[in-house]
Amino acid sequence: MVFCPGTDNPNFYLMKKNVTLPLALICIMVMDGFSQNNSNSKELVFQPGAKDGKDAWVQYVEGLPVHAARNFGDVDQLIAESWTFYGLGGTTGQIRGLLDFTGLHQIPQGTKVNYAYLSLYGVPTSSANDRGNQGANACYLQRITSPWQEHTVSWNNQPGITPANQVTIPASGEVVWNYHVIDLNITRLVQDIINLPPAKRYGFCIRLQNNNYYRSMLFASSDHADSTRHPKLRISLSDEKPLTAAGIAALTPARTGTMKQGISAVSKADLDAHQLNIVYALVKDGKTTLEILSSKGKLLRSYKLEGTKGRHVFTTELDADILKETTATLKITQGKTAILLPFLDE
User: Fold this and answer.
1) Does the predicted model carry a pTM greater than 0.85?
2) Cα–Cα distance between 330 and 319 in angstroms, integer?
3) What Cα–Cα distance (Å) separates residue 258 from each residue in 13, 28, 76, 136, 280?
4) DSSP state, 187?
5) At residue 345, what are phi and psi to the nearest 5 degrees?
6) How far is CA 44 from its chain centroid?
């Protein structure tokens, strides 16, 4: 578990999946000095944005019952807080954060979770609390036990929670802004969730351990303008229960492969038509190549791509030599930057 207060962290999408499609490209990401290779497990990373993310906060203020009925599903922060609200005409009040990675719903029930790490990123400012992180603000991350909807949940109808296998989010200490909690180990919590039927997986609640005021802890939500600050969950699953094709499609991020280092790409395959389509973008000019590699690293095909700055579309036919492979890897390289992304039969 690493705490990086006051610093930004790269937005990594590291995924490895064993699938049963006729041709499946395994996604990882390769950068200078970094790689991952583990044939006995698969790692999935979830970091959804405003479109696919599900998070909110719920709030009540003594003397102002309207707040307990109000929905905060479109706010750009996740807050746990106990404060006073005299300026609003109330007295004391509390806020709790709710968070659900809905991609977990696609994982087969009972799949073994080798590890699960949650990263929550702080904010540089807040219109909700201009004093930032305050007080002895250690929090609990607890499993939610009943349904809730992002745009209708409120304090009055908030879901139930359980302390079983709860995890402590350590206090921010002297860090008022940009308090980042990186790779918080929540393996047991996620295993509890995966052991349930998908329809009964409801996510997490962030709440203070001590509700005496003045205490607050602020993180970015999936609605935050800075996508690198969105909540991120990375998990490793055993191969005992392989994902279905439908499950893989649901797990694949909408912006698969997005990187700060200069390349972003999304690939789509129509295996019936023997066709591969790639939409990619470059932040600078440079020689750019596409390689299709077998599972053993053998180069199957190599293509020279348009390497000018901007957005491009590349289409190619998939011949029999490629289609006979059970797994393959698709790699786009420009200079010292390379990205390996998934494509799925559509």
Assistant:
1) no
2) 15
3) 8, 12, 21, 37, 10
4) H
5) -65, 125
6) 9
Place of tokens 């492979």: 325
Domain extents in the chain: 11-39+256-346, 41-242
CA 29, CA 331: separation in Å to the nearest integer? Answer: 9
Contact 275, 315 (CB under 8 A): yes
According to the model, what pLDDT value does residue 71 have?
98
Residue that is written with structure tokens 């998908």 in the block = 198
**Backbone dihedral angles phi then psi of residue 18, each to the nearest 5 degrees:** -95, 125
CA distance 171 to 208: 10
Q: Where are the beta strands (DSSP E) in 108-212?
A: 113-120, 139-144, 161-169, 181-185, 204-208
pLDDT in tens, 233-290: 999 998 655 554 444 444 444 333 444 357 877 776 666 777 777 878 888 899 999 8
| Encoded amino acid at 292, one letter | I
- Give the tokens for residue 42: 């698969």
The CATH number corresponding to 11-39+256-346 among 2.40.30.170, 3.30.750.24, 2.60.40.4070, 2.40.50.140 equals 2.60.40.4070
